[in-house]
Design goal:
Order of helices and strands: EHEEHEEHH
Distance between the termini: 63 Å
Number of domains: 2
CATH architecture of the largest domain: 2-Layer Sandwich
Strand order of the largest sheet: 2-3-1-5-4
Structural class: alpha+beta
Length: about 120
């Protein structure tokens, strides 16, 4: 099972995550994510552990704890589908379409409100 870790310091590497999470069970893989252009850490990463029970223990013990000078956030990682389902968008094109629709709705509401300003009740 995958674990998502955010707010890592720039100094944290894959081997650091393996050591940190290894306290709670077998670590299958670790991955600190780096910026392709700068080569600098994006300050988040993933850990894959073999046993679900170990994942939950690691999350419970490490979430919101200090590691390498920063308070890290640790949670179960979600798939892209789960993330897009939560936000209601599946792509940037859908987001743009939704933003246009919201803008049109806001403009319609403003026109209605402006028309009512002339009436005396």
């Amino acid at each position: 099972m995958n674990i998502f870790i955010s707010n890592l310091s720039y100094r944290v590497e894959d081997s650091d995550l393996k050591e940190l999470f290894g306290q709670f069970g077998e670590v299958v893989t670790t991955k600190v994510v780096y910026d392709n252009q700068t080569g600098r850490s994006k300050c988040f990463g993933f850990v894959n552990m073999a046993e679900k029970e170990h994942v939950q223990t690691a999350i419970n013990k490490l979430n919101r704890t200090m590691y390498d000078g920063k308070i890290i956030n640790v949670s179960e990682s979600r798939t892209r589908e789960e993330k897009s389902g939560k936000s209601g968008y599946s792509s940037s094109a859908d987001r743009k379409q939704q933003q246009k629709q919201n803008l049109n709705n806001n403009n319609s509401n403003n026109n209605i409100n402006n028309n009512n300003d002339d009436k005396i009740f």
